[in-house]
């Protein structure tokens, strides 16, 4: 992770420049972004302004345009050495903001710039591909995957199917499960022993639940308290119920109080104030 350069005294003496840049970024006015930056006297000032971090959110101008999906503002920022590796206060680099918002054009601009890493990680080890899957952004997920993005586990042991299950997008999950390497992860637990099916149940994601059951997820891996989902068997490897019976039984889990802890580990919406 890079840290933003402290903005120079020249820039600080002109807060109107910062305000104008923010307003231009939020409004998607690439020409105005370029004018504001070119209006600084030295390259040092232009670079500092292009990397200025909001005290409230940690957003740089590049974060702001990626959050809003204004890809036309990215080139003038990169021209003035805007750093694509800086984290905001939530540990997101600009490309994570673009992936979270389903802004394919922004992701494409960043990946095609020489300094951006398609597998840039957050403070929790999340790649843009994982964030796109968490947001249910199939188009962005496909683009990242085709560009070399991968879904290795984050620092908590969650794999790409954990993230996709939390999005409740059956379409996204079915696409991932059509890829052999990802389908092999269908029953993989995270560091707390939770599988993607746990996440679908805990978060009330019925579309994800349906997609996982369609691919014969091992329901017996849920918890010791869900042994009623299994046929009685003398074998040490009990047989699972039929698809319809399993669906009905597992859906009973969805009416139980949802775990606050499980929900807190997912960042499905942008932090306020951006």
UniProtKB/TrEMBL annotation:
Keyword Repeat carried by entry: yes
Any one GO cellular component localisation term in the record: nucleus
Coiled coil: none
SMART domains: ANK
ANK repeats: 57-89
SUPFAM superfamilies: Ankyrin repeat (SSF48403)
Keyword Repeat: yes
UniProt-listed Pfam families: Ank, Ank_2
InterPro entries on file: Ankyrin_rpt, Ankyrin_rpt-contain_sf
Organism superkingdom: Eukaryota
Keyword set, alphabetical order: ANK repeat, Repeat
One GO term of the biological process aspect: regulation of gene expression
PANTHER family assigned: ANKYRIN REPEAT FAMILY A, CHROMOSOME UNDETERMINED SCAFFOLD_25, WHOLE GENOME SHOTGUN SEQUENCE
Protein name: Ankyrin-1
Organism of this sequence: Geodia barretti
Record lineage: Eukaryota, Metazoa, Porifera, Demospongiae, Heteroscleromorpha
């Amino acid at each position: 992770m890079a840290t933003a350069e402290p903005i120079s005294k020249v820039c600080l003496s002109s807060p109107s420049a910062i305000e104008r840049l923010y307003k231009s970024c939020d409004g998607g006015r690439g020409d105005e972004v370029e004018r504001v930056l070119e209006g600084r006297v030295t390259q040092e000032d232009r670079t500092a302004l292009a990397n200025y971090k909001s005290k409230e959110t940690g957003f740089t101008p590049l974060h702001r345009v990626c959050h809003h999906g204004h890809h036309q503002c990215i080139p003038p920022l990169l021209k003035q050495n805007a750093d694509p590796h800086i984290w905001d206060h939530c540990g997101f680099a600009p490309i994570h903001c673009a992936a979270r918002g389903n802004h394919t054009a922004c992701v494409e601009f960043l990946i095609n710039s020489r300094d951006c890493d398609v597998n840039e990680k957050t403070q929790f080890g999340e790649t843009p591909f994982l964030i796109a899957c968490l947001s249910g952004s199939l188009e962005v997920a496909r683009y990242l995957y085709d560009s070399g993005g991968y879904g290795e586990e984050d620092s908590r042991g969650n794999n790409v199917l954990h993230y996709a299950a939390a999005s409740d997008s059956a379409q996204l999950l079915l696409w991932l499960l059509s890829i052999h390497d990802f389908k092999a992860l269908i029953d993989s637990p995270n560091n707390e022993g939770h599988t993607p099916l746990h996440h679908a149940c805990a978060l009330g994601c019925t579309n994800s639940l349906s997609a996982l059951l369609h691919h014969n997820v091992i329901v017996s891996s849920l918890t010791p308290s869900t042994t009623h989902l299994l046929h009685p068997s003398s074998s040490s490897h009990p047989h699972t119920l039929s698809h319809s019976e399993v669906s009905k039984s597992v859906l009973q889990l969805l009416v139980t109080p949802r775990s606050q802890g499980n929900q807190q580990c997912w960042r499905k919406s942008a932090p306020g104030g951006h």
